[in-house]
Amino acid sequence: MRNDFAVFILTHGRPDRVLTIKSLRKCGYTGKIYMIVDDKDDSIDKYKTLICDDIDVVIFSKDDISSECDTCDNIDRKNIVLYARNSCHKIAKDLGLTYFLELDDDYSEFRSRMLIDGKLCTIYVRDFDSIADAVIEFLENSGAHTVAFAQTGDFIGGAGSRVFKERLARKAMNSFFCKTDRPFKFYGRINEDVNAYVLNGSRGELYFTIADVSLDQCTTQAHKGGLTESYLEMGTYVKSFYTVICCPSSVKVHVMGCSHKRIHHSIDWEHAVPKIISSDFKKGDRK
Amino acid sequence: MALFEITKNEADETYTRKTQVPQYVPSKTKPHIDSLVDYKKYSQLIRNINESGVSEEEKKFLRFGASRHLMFNYSLIADYYAHASKEMQELMEQSALVILDIDDAIANGYVKLSSDIEKIMNTTGDRTKDA
Questions:
Q1: How many angstroms away from the CA of B51 is the closest CA of chain A?
Q2: Cα end-to-end distance, chain B, whole Å
Q3: Sequence-separated (6 or more) residues with CB below 8 Å from residue B111
Q4: Under an 8 A CB cutoff, do B41 and A249 touch?
Q5: Contacting residues for B78 by C-beta, under 8 A, at least 6 apart
Q6: Hey, of A275, A282, A287, which one would you mutate to test binding to chain B, going by the most B CBs within 10 A of its CB?
Q7: CA B24 to CA B79: how far, in whole Å?
Q8: What is the C-alpha separation between A214 and A235, in angstroms, rounded?
Q9: Over the stretch A247-275, which tens digit does the pLDDT of each residue have?
Q10: What is the pTM assigned to this prediction?
Q11: Long-range pairs for B114-121 at CB < 8 Å and ≥24 separation?
């Protein structure tokens, strides 16, 4: 793996269950991994026991970064991932990296979904380094602020699912391929990834999810530590409203699900982000 | 009018139908400039602000806030851009009302990415057919 790239795993209170490390190695990733841990984590010493040749720990100050973060509320609690997310570009710069991939700590697998003989099949990633190289090339050439893998749940509906058909979506969640000198901010106590791609996207920044690779994540709220407490405290009802606060002209809350109904954000993409069009439509110096 | 209208969201489907990966193809028809933005919510808020008894400084701030409820229709905006003057186009670009895919770098870049990943997966991937 190129040495100007590393994977950052954002983790808190789970030094014995950083599943993503094992998953990355199983998928053939050979490069450097940094666990990004906040200075208020009681288990810092345990995280440090995981340090080896290609795994390291970076500790950041929540108090220092908090002045640069907009939680979109006035709750005086810092048990959220926003601070870690907004620290990553600076950490990457300090480490001398050109690119990095930001992951959470509870990913179990990376895979591709492909149509083979008319059926949607799974092929598990075993050469993660080459996948990362390909995504970095697209990140560089497209000018995107970040490129993300899809989530396995995006393919509910199989080959007819929207993500599978659309291939490239204007959003980014759970995994973020980033360029160090192309920083962007996350916003909000929770739903910070959605808030970022809708708010920053409305201002012309590009956020992409590719359908070609997806990640598997442990079930939210079933894995102690991390953001679980925050999700259980607030629920998806409050979570969804953070994105409404950020972009009230394009986001609403709605009821989703069939038997198990829940409140979720609903983005009206027609009103959310500017369209990408060919430069052939530009008048003057171009054709 | 309710604070938040609840309507069936069909925009995603529209977006999918109209979009080539990931470029939008503008219409051959130039839309009227008044159709590019939905002012309904904004106008209601401005009316309430104007009729209120708060100070002028507060009204000024609230008017800025009301602008967050202007609903830009980015398909129509892209349609308009394609027919606009050079000067208008440049101002629209500065405000990121459209994103120009210079020399199709995004579209072609994605095609290459997808092709590269397919090759990688076909040569090194671990195949497990779905149940």
A1: 23
A2: 50
A3: B21
A4: yes
A5: A274, A275, A277, B24, B26, B98
A6: A275
A7: 9
A8: 25
A9: 999 999 888 777 677 788 889 999 999 99
A10: 0.88
A11: B114/A167, B114/A210, B114/A212, B116/A130, B116/A134, B116/A137, B117/A112, B117/A131, B117/A134, B117/A210, B117/A212, B117/A213, B118/A114, B118/A212, B120/A127, B120/A130, B120/A131, B120/A134, B121/A112, B121/A114, B121/A123, B121/A125
- How large is the ipTM? 0.89
User: How far are the Cα atoms of A56, A271, B77, B126 from residue A31, in angstroms, in the given order?
Assistant: 12, 40, 44, 20
Q: Write down the residue that tokens 């003989």 correspond to.
A: A117
Q: What token pair was written down for A221? A: 């709220």
Encoded amino acid at A91, one letter = I
Q: What is the pLDDT of residues B90-108, one digit of tens each?
A: 999 999 999 999 999 999 9
Q: What is the spatial distance between Cα A171 and Cα A177, in angstroms, rounded to a whole number?
A: 13
Residues A214, A217: Cα–Cα separation, whole Å: 10
Q: Tally Cβ neighbours within 10 Å of residue B57.
A: 8
Neighboring chain B residues of A252 at a CB cutoff of 8 Å: 4-6, 9
